[in-house]
Structure formats: C-alpha cells, structure tokens
Amino acid sequence: MDILSREELKTLAEYRADPCVSIYMPTHRAGTDTQEDPIRLKKLLRQAEADMMARGIRGTTARDLLRPAAELLEDPFFWQHQSTGLAVFASRQQFRHYSLPVEFEERVVVTDRFEVQPLFPLLTNDGLFYILALSQKMVKLFHCTRDSIRDITPESVPKSLAEALRYDQPGRELQFHTDTAPAAPIGERAERVYGQGVGEEYDKDRILRYTYIVDKGLHEPLRDQHAPLVLATVDYLLPIYKEANTYPLLVDEAVAGNPEAVNPSVLHDRAWNVVLPYLIQAQRDAYERYRNLIGSGRVANDIREVVPAAYYGRVDTLFTLKEAEQWGRFDPDTATVELHSGPEPGDEDLVNFSAIYSFVNKGTVFAVELADMPDSGLVAAILRY
Hints:
alpha+beta, Translation, Eukaryotic Peptide Chain Release Factor Subunit 1, Chain A, CATH 3.30.1330.30, 4-stranded antiparallel β-sheet, globular
C-alpha cells in the first residue's frame, strides 16, 4: 500500500499536459482473485490507447506513453502486494501509480489534466489517521485508513526508552538539551526534579525526555499532514506524551493499555473506534454549515457557478458526488461554462476541475455518496464571499 500525501495530490492536481491518462480500478489483496487484476488493467490500457487515438494521437505514441504501465502486467510481485484500489497516472513526462485503500470503480479518463477527484476521500472522510504505539520498550508509527494499517515507523524515532537515552550519563538523564525539550516554565520546577536520579520524579522526567525525542522524530513523517494521531499507550504515559507533543491533531482519547503484545489489526480496530467521531465531525460540521447558509448567497450547487468560483479561489468547502462526471469547457477570460452530455474534443470533467481548483486554492473537498450531499446536483460549495 502507498501513502498519498497532500503535497503529492497537489502536484498531480496542478500538472498539465496533453494527454494526461488517469486509470482507476479495484484490486485484491490476496487469493486467486489477484490473477484477475492484471487482466483488468490490460483492458483499461487498451481503452486508454483508443481514447488517445480518438484525440488524434498516433497509436505508437499512445503505446509508448503507456509502456511503463504495461510493464506492470508482467510483474507478479507487484500484483501480490496490492491494497483495494489502484490509481495510475501517465503522460509523456510523468508516470505514477498508487496502491491505495479505496475500492475505485473502473475508470479511464484522457484529458489535459489528471483526474484526481476520486482521491479526495483519502484526505477527508474515508478515514486517514495515524497510530503511535508507545511504551518504554517500543515505538511504532502506523498509517491507517478505515480498512488498513501499515507500519511506517521512521528511522528518526528511537525503538525504545533505552535506545533514546543510551548516550545519557548516569545521574544526568534529566538535563534536557535545548534541541529536544524546552526549559520548564516558571512555577513548574518544583514538579520536576532535575539531576537527582532517584525517586518517582526522576522516572517521570526521564520518560518526559524520552517523549520529547519521540515527538521530534515524528516531525518529518508527519510534516504537512492533516490526519488525526491516536496514541496507544498505558495510562501513565498519556499525559507525559501530551506534554511533549507538538503535532496539532493528537486525539485527546487514547487506546489504553500496553501496545507491545497487541496484534496490529486489533490495534487498528480499537483506534478506529476512538478516531471515527473525529473523522466524521468535520464533514458533519460542513454539511450543517452549508444547510444553514442556504438563501444567504454563500452557497452554490449549480456547476456553472461553482466552476468559476473554484477557479478564482472563492470556494471554501466543496462537496462532490463520488464518481460523478460533467463534461464541458470553462473560459477563464469570460468566466463562462459550457456543458455537454458527453466528452467532446477539448472538453474536461468539470467536477474534477472544481475539485482541483478548490483544493489548490486551499479549500476543503469532500467526495461523498448521494445521501451525504447537502444539496441537489453533482457539486455543492460553500463560498468564501
């Protein structure tokens, strides 16, 4: 399974070339069903080649563009290590593929930009979160979604308290260095005993130093992430880690208990119960906000209004109907939108267009099922002004 960061999604969203090929398909994690997956991709590659030729691209050029994807067909190791969905992006200069925990519908799109709208659930309501399993003898960081868990523990974090503090001199464990922990604020020094090396306060401060080192080691893997972090640890470590933590989306509630002997799938299930209210709350809040703004001039569900609003940075929050398409053209000079019942030469998917520009202009995008749309239509936007 791959991890798709916001920065990678932004790169895909902003990329322009002609042609850009986007392919989505469901895949299987294990069993004989995995043998069907390369057959499915081969069929979709043929469709992509035909679509490019329909755009006036020579067959040899189309096949050359798709060659890196075709090479995956002969890689058995690749097909034995899939998640539930595969996304492939190809142009003359770019080739990227992602094994992702989303069950995509089969889809091939050939325009002058990548189709990224199906990826937005990975960053919002489909359950991206992290678990930090922490004890004195273990540190592990897991990347999780609703249906998956993956150990992504970086080398930058220690494997245990002993490793973190192994270079400390006896009796000096409590002398924090400036690059790992701040000085205690006035009024707290009586609570911490520095340099004594004995008693309960010694143990607490030694562990506090350990948690500062762990937190610092997470800065790079969690940089620019916007997903909740759930701590799995024993009760006494929770408040100590919270004191050291600098990641802004650490969930208040933790998975209680020593995580050392807990199977990752069990840990995932316990953490999912903790994090689910946090994951759905943002979407619920946005839904209610949209409904409360109806009639105020601050919402729009007509794609002919939403497309230019997204392009000019007016969209604060966008709901799109999952897997929806609306083909047409947008003229930024006149801010006019032309809609077509199917793709015509020069067209693009305007639902995807709206999602891309809302996201690039720092809006929030929710790709949702019909029941979760706050209004009728393929898109529904809360406008900044």
